[in-house]
Design a protein that fits this description.
single chain; alpha/beta; UDP N-Acetylglucosamine Acyltransferase, domain 1; five-stranded parallel β-sheet; O-acyltransferase activity; acyltransferase; Trimer_LpxA-like_sf; repeat
Length: about 180
Amino acid sequence: MTERTQKQKMLAGELYNANDAELAADAARAHAWISRYNTMLAASNDERRAMLVELFAHVGEGAVVRPPFFCDYGFNISIGCGAFLNFNCVLLDIMPISIGDGTQVGPGVQILTADHPRDPAPRREGLEFGRAISIGANCWIGGGALIMPGITIGDDVIIGAGAVVTRDVPSGATAVGNPARVR
């Protein structure tokens, strides 16, 4: 049995070494793309969408991502039809990030699948892991919110500006604060 690559371990949500050559090449490709994309503020939504299709796993019709935008790899990001990400969003996509149809994401939002061992020994070795994030349809995520690893947000949810989402949020709920609590 052959040992799995660091990328295979990453995609499986297991401990992996992010300094791996294959992952470094994937990140370099994404960073080159980001450099090009972030110069396209004056471009049309159709021109920017064509670039998103180059990198993302899925881009629904009418999806808009305003530059500047930042991600780790891009190939783990899926955004639905009519989804909107405002300026300066950060998506750490070592695991899948799914954003549903019609969801609106405010400026400066961070969606973070990357996580780290609680035990200091594996951290010293440079090991990390990730947990996927799923955001439903027709959500509104206020500016500056943080969505932490492993979170599922249902449909029709409102996340208040500046909220730190550390627990799943059920469909139809509003969550605000740090840590975010459902109201």
